[in-house]
Write a structure and sequence with these properties.
Largest sheet: 9 strands, antiparallel
Helix content: under 10%
Structural class: mainly beta
Radius of gyration: 16 Å
Number of helices: 1
Shape: globular
Mean pLDDT: 93
Strand order of the largest sheet: 4-5-8-18-10-11-12-13-17
Low-confidence stretches: 1-11
Number of strands: 21
């Protein structure tokens, strides 16, 4: 897919996976690009409801999540961009949007909402968080971008809400080296022994790119 950014046609953005969440029945979460379908775990009732773009997946914040068997995500220090539409009102606990990797400092990748409602990215041993709450019951487009400069660190991750860059606060300068030891998951994180940090609310249009999108490209995606 190509985008026109400030009047200039860009090359097609290389989406690795795109979970549109447009299902109407069942528990399979289809990937419309790379064939990495997910399986919704512990969902009950009707998890597919009206979303930001067509349907969305509703997660209960207790034990629901999606596991993408056989897909370990982007690893090492490689550049990446994660985006999603989210809707939540939950505060007081961390809520993971996307996660993969090993539960060792620098080896886990987590895209999440902090307990205070602010967007964050974390790598086990360090995190970076934004400046505005997204836990207000409204739809928000959220994005995290990592550029591989040879020695990427968690404090270098860029965060965006509704297409606009966040003023960020980081806990450390933890080096990033994501390890392929866990399936990609949506709505939860595996800490080595158990699932946790369950997402409470709606997820829609969850994407992973293997390039660091620019601010202009993020804005264009948010405006789709």
């Amino acid at each position: 897919r190509s985008y026109s950014v400030t009047g200039v046609q860009t090359c097609a953005l290389p989406i690795l996976v795109l979970w549109k969440m447009d299902e109407t029945t069942g528990t399979v979460v289809s990937d419309g690009v790379g064939g990495h379908d997910g399986q919704a775990v512990n969902v009950t009732g009707m998890p597919w409801i009206a979303g930001r773009l067509n349907n969305a997946l509703k997660l209960d914040g207790v034990d629901d999540y999606v596991d993408v068997a056989g897909y370990a995500g982007i690893t090492g220090t490689a550049s990446r961009t994660c985006t999603a539409w989210i809707k939540t009102t939950a505060n007081g606990k961390e809520q993971v949007i996307l996660s993969w990797g090993n539960a060792v400092n620098g080896q886990k990748w987590m895209f999440r909402v902090q307990a205070d409602g602010k967007l964050a990215a974390a790598v086990w041993g360090g995190y970076i968080s934004g400046s505005v709450s997204v836990a207000d019951g409204q739809w928000h487009h959220v994005a995290a971008v990592l550029l591989d400069d040879g020695s990427p660190s968690v404090n270098e991750i860029r965060l965006y809400v509704d297409g606009f860059p966040q003023t960020v606060t980081s806990s450390s300068s933890q080096a990033i080296n994501t390890v392929a030891s866990q399936n990609v998951q949506m709505g939860s994180v595996y800490n080595g022994t158990a699932q946790g940090s369950f997402f409470s609310g709606l997820l829609d249009e969850v994407r992973i790119y293997d390039v660091p999108l620019t601010g202009e490209q993020i804005l264009r995606v948010a405006m789709e």
